[in-house]
What does this fold into?
Amino acid sequence: MRVVTDLKNISVEEINKEHHSKINLFIDMDGVLAGAITDEKEIYKKGFFEKRPSYELTIETLKTIENLYPSINLFILSKLSNKNLDAEKEKIKWLKTKEHDLELFKDESKWLFVPTDESKISFAKRKVKNFNSCVNILIDDFNPNLYEWSEEENNISLKVINELNNKNEDFNYLFAHPYSLEHILGNIQVINNILDFTNKKLTSK
It folds into this structure.
């Protein structure tokens, strides 16, 4: 489901927290939490994923989400690479070095690494027991992932804007770059809008 809303003022109090446990929020790594991949040839190098810089803007946004909406189910959903057989180990090391930043970074049961021959939505369905009974939100920077995710009724896609990609009118978007207070506040507003929409959807059932 593609949800494109106008940015409007929605207070946290207006969002019914009763439904938050029925929301799964999946966050991509490369280009969303960790720096966008600017040179595909670099992936072959040992330690590439472990040494990626982080997008502090995304981390600050997620930190706010954890504080405001603690009952939402957060997951890492990151695709592996057949160009680097150590990708999973390196991504785990990256997350562990950031564990002081987010509760999500401390809970390995919420880290989902997608095999190269499987789609993100297929893998999430297999690994997350309540997937089919929840509203599932994907935060990603890769359009094919976002389009495939949003094909199903209970799924919502949020595109992340970094220094390599552009906005897409089909999706609401969050900023990973550049870091600014304005972008943090804008990201939180978008999340609030999506949660308001989700709350109304769940209430109507």
Residues 1-15 have pLDDT under 50 and may be disordered. The first strand starts at residue 23 and ends at 27. The chain is about 30% helix and 15% strand. The helical segments are 56-68, 87-97, 120-127, 143-149, 181-203.
